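Hi R.,

As promised on Friday, here is the backbone we talked about, encoded as structure tokens. Could you run it through your design pipeline when you get a chance and send me back a sequence?
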């Protein structure tokens, strides 16, 4: 079968202090059985490793930071698209999604760039700060949580929560506090990086299980692969994990996507309590950094996302291999200073 040639732009080429989904997404797309894909990287920093990984990324352009707003983003994308003729764009960072969601209709109508993104309402309702309402609306158990805006509020938390509790940033980062003093320390550390509010969540003991899934926006879950973390970093990121055979977890994912009519990739993070109750901790609105495990298990979720974006037929994938492991590793990329200077000065490489 002759593969259809297309160009796909991806962000998240691995940020400096934790792995991003961009390279796993690009890697899965390069192994597509349907498309012959040219990958255009969209970077924010000049030291994102994916810029220099030519086996996965054919060319990279720098784009403005999310704080620059949608006007600057559109201007930059207009130039990039005039050169590359992008067919599909896949954002991979939580903090940038608001801008891309806001302009997704314009990307299609003006630049003919397709996306598969949730609506603004879907994006907002699954925020950590709205998790209780999300759980009630979509019939999924969630731990007790509360938004706070000042460290002074921590002294009164013992009236509503018991220690240990979890202190979480609105986008990333979570730390377990065993005392009010620790909670205050984590409040200042996380808010300095990600801003307010800070989310306080009751700590639930049990096994952490995550699932990567993709919805077509019509209520269909096109694929879902659960994973248990085997090794985590000090930031709680999975550095090794194994795919699970867990029908109940898959049923929960299908139910959430069906009821919310979620469009695009997502990651659902759960704690399975000793009593067998699955508590939803977060719904991340993009693919996880371990999404390539799904490809290794037989489901290519990034390829399905491209199909949704382009309006091609996307089959529901139910089969996958359990007992498949991923083990993340670091390596030194040897890069010419001339290449670094190109991306630094010209904004493209």
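Update: got your reply. Pasting your designed sequence below so it's all in one thread:
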């Amino acid at each position: 079968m002759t593969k259809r040639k297309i160009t796909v732009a991806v962000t998240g080429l691995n940020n400096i202090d934790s792995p991003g989904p961009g390279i796993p997404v690009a890697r899965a797309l390069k192994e597509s059985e349907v498309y012959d894909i040219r990958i255009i990287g969209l970077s924010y920093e000049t030291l994102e490793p994916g810029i220099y990984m030519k086996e996965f990324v054919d060319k990279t352009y720098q784009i403005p930071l999310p704080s620059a707003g949608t006007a600057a983003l559109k201007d930059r994308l207009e130039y990039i698209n005039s050169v590359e003729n992008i067919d599909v764009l896949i954002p991979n960072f939580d903090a940038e999604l608001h801008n891309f969601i806001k302009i997704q209709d314009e990307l299609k109508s003006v630049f003919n760039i397709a996306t598969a993104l949730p609506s603004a309402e879907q994006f907002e309702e699954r925020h950590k700060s709205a998790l209780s309402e999300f759980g009630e609306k979509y019939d999924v158990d969630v731990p007790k949580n509360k938004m706070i805006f000042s460290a002074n509020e921590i002294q009164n938390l013992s009236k509503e929560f018991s220690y240990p509790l979890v202190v979480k940033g609105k986008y990333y980062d979570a730390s377990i506090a065993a005392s009010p003093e620790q909670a205050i320390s984590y409040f200042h550390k996380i808010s300095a990086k990600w801003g307010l509010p800070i989310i306080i969540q009751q700590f639930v003991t049990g096994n952490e299980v995550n699932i990567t899934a993709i919805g077509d926006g019509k209520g269909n879950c096109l694929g879902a692969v659960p994973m248990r973390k085997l090794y985590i970093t000090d930031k709680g990121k999975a550095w090794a994990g194994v795919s699970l055979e867990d029908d109940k977890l898959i049923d929960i994912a299908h139910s959430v996507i069906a009821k919310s009519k979620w469009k695009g990739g997502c990651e659902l993070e759960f704690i399975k309590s000793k009593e067998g109750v699955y508590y939803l901790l977060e719904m991340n609105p993009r693919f996880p950094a371990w999404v390539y495990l799904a490809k290794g298990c037989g489901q290519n979720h990034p390829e399905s996302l491209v199909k949704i974006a382009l309006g091609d037929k996307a089959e529901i994938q139910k089969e996958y291999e359990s007992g498949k492991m991923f083990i993340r590793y670091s390596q030194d990329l040897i890069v010419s200073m001339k290449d670094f200077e190109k991306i630094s000065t010209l904004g493209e490489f």
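One thing I noticed while checking it: The radius of gyration is 20 Å.

Thanks again,
M.
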